[in-house]
Design goal:
12 helices; lipid degradation; alpha/beta; three-stranded mixed beta sheet; 15 strands; lipid metabolism; ten-stranded mixed beta sheet
Length: about 425
C-alpha cells in the first residue's frame, strides 16, 4: 500500500519537472559563459548610432594639439540620416588580457629600445558583439559613417582642449594638418564606433586642407623606405642607407613619432576610452583612415571595418603590433574593397601610375586581416581607375549588390621583396 501511494507522487514530480524544462526551453534562458544568439532578427540591430564627439589631433608642427567637440544625443545633421543602424553578432575574440592604453604604449615603447626581444603576451578570450559583415545594409551603414568623417566641421568654436592649450589665432583650423576622428555612440552608450578620416587630396577627388600631412603619412606608411623611389623625390624620413637598403629601427621610430598619425590615433583611442570605459569599441575608416583604423584595431584587438585601404601589414609589422595566436580566418579586421581600385589592390605604383605622378609612393599591397572584395572588374566590367577608390561611388556600388563578398585570408602576398632592411 505504501509503495503504491508513492507512484502518483513520483509521477507528479516528473510532470512538474518536465513542465519546468519545457518552460525554460521556451524562454531560451541564457547559459553562463558565451553570449546567447537571439532568435529575433530585430535583436541583431543595435539602437541607432549618432554623432557624439569629434576629435581633432594635431600633427607635424602641432603634435600636442588635441581637441574635442561634443554633441548631444539628440543632435541631427542637416543632411544625412538621423541615426545609423547596424547589425551585430556574438563572437569570441582573442586579444591581450592587459590592453589598457598605458600597458600598450609601454609595450610599443619597449619594442623600439635597443636589444628588445619578443614579448610573450598573456592572451584571453572575450565574448563580445562584432559588426555583421555578412549583412549588406550594415556594410553600407559603416561606409556612410566613414564618408561622414570627411565632412567639414560644424560652425562654432566650442572646442575643449585636451592637450596643451592652443592659441587658435595661430591658424590651426578645423581641417588643417592633423588626424580627425568622428565618434558615434548607440543609445545605451554600450557600443562606440570610431570613424577615422582618410586622405584629402585632389588626386582622390576629396576636399580639405590636410593634404600635406596626409601625403606625408601615406608615404611613410605605404612605401618601402620613406618614399625613396628616385633621387628626384623628397623623402619623408632619413632611413635610406644605400641602394635598396633601409634602416629598420629608423623606420620603426619614424612611424611612431609624436607628429605622425599613428601616435595621434592612440591618443584619440585613449580619450574615447576615458569617456566610455566599459563600452565595446569598433573602428572604421576609408583609405588612409581605413589603414589607421586597422592599425588601431590591431593594437587593441578591436573589431575593425576598413574600406579601400592600402596594404597596412608592413606598417603593422614595423610597429610590432600584437597578432593573436588564432587561425587567420578568425580575424576581426575586415578590409572591404573592389578589384577596380588600384590603391586597394596595390597596383597604383611605378613611375607611370597616377599615384606616383601625384607624389604618392604607394608600394604596399598586403593587408593584415581578411579581404572582402567586390569583383567589379569581372562582374561589372569596371576599368581599374583611381576614381573607384572614392567612398561615395563605393557606397553606390555596394547598394547595387544584394549580397556581401566572401571574406578570405590574403594569399601569397609579399611587400618590398627587392629591399633589404638592416
Amino acid at each position: 500500500m505504501a509503495s503504491s501511494g508513492r507512484v502518483p507522487l513520483l509521477l507528479a514530480v516528473f510532470i512538474v519537472t518536465l513542465l519546468c524544462a519545457s518552460a525554460a526551453a521556451a524562454l531560451e534562458l541564457p547559459f553562463i559563459g558565451r553570449l546567447p544568439i537571439s532568435r529575433h532578427e530585430s535583436d541583431r540591430y543595435a539602437p541607432g548610432f549618432t554623432l557624439r564627439h569629434i576629435f581633432n589631433h594635431g600633427t607635424e608642427s602641432h603634435p600636442q594639439l588635441h581637441r574635442r567637440r561634443d554633441f548631444s544625443a539628440q543632435y541631427r545633421p542637416e543632411d544625412g540620416p538621423a541615426a545609423f543602424q547596424v547589425a551585430s553578432v556574438p563572437r569570441t575574440v582573442t586579444r591581450m588580457k592587459q590592453r589598457d592604453p598605458d600597458t600598450m604604449e609601454s609595450y610599443l615603447h619597449y619594442t623600439r629600445t635597443h636589444g628588445a626581444v619578443a614579448v610573450d603576451f598573456d592572451w584571453g578570450d572575450d565574448d563580445i558583439m562584432v559588426p555583421d559583415v555578412t549583412d549588406r545594409d550594415t556594410l553600407i551603414e559603416f561606409a556612410k559613417l566613414t564618408a561622414d568623417a570627411y565632412v567639414d566641421g560644424p560652425e562654432g568654436n566650442d572646442w575643449i582642449d585636451l592637450g596643451i592649450p592652443f592659441n587658435e589665432s595661430g591658424g590651426f583650423g578645423w581641417d588643417s594638418n592633423g588626424l580627425r576622428g568622428h565618434i558615434f555612440v548607440d543609445e545605451s552608450n554600450s557600443t562606440v564606433i570610431i570613424a577615422i578620416k582618410g586622405t584629402s587630396a585632389a588626386l582622390f577627388h576629396s576636399d580639405g586642407d590636410t593634404v600635406s600631412s596626409d601625403k606625408v603619412n601615406d608615404n611613410l606608411l605605404f612605401s618601402c623606405c620613406c618614399a625613396r623611389i628616385s633621387y628626384m623625390w623628397s623623402t619623408v624620413c632619413d632611413c635610406y642607407s644605400k641602394s635598396y637598403t633601409c634602416n629598420q629601427s629608423c623606420l620603426e621610430k619614424s612611424l611612431y613619432a609624436e607628429d605622425k598619425y599613428y601616435r595621434a590615433a592612440l591618443d584619440i583611442y585613449r580619450n574615447v576610452t576615458s569617456l566610455y570605459p566599459t563600452a565595446n569599441i569598433w573602428v572604421a575608416g576609408h583609405s588612409l583612415g581605413g589603414a589607421m583604423s586597422a592599425l588601431l584595431g590591431r593594437t587593441y584587438g578591436l573589431p575593425t571595418i576598413a574600406f579601400e585601404a592600402p596594404g597596412e601589414k608592413l606598417a603593422a609589422e614595423r610597429l610590432h603590433l600584437p597578432f593573436p595566436p588564432i587561425p587567420p580566418e578568425q580575424s576581426t579586421v575586415w578590409h572591404i574593397g573592389n578589384t577596380a581600385d588600384p590603391i586597394y589592390m596595390g597596383v597604383c605604383n611605378g613611375p607611370t601610375s597616377v599615384c606616383w605622378l601625384g607624389g604618392y609612393a604607394m608600394e604596399t599591397s598586403c593587408h593584415a586581416g581578411l579581404e572582402c572584395t567586390y569583383d567589379t572588374v569581372g562582374e561589372r566590367r569596371w576599368h581599374i581607375s583611381i576614381s573607384n577608390h572614392r567612398i561615395r561611388p563605393i557606397i553606390d556600388m555596394m547598394m547595387s549588390y544584394n549580397t556581401t563578398p566572401t571574406c578570405v585570408v590574403p594569399q601569397n602576398c609579399q611587400d618590398c621583396y627587392d629591399w633589404s632592411f638592416e
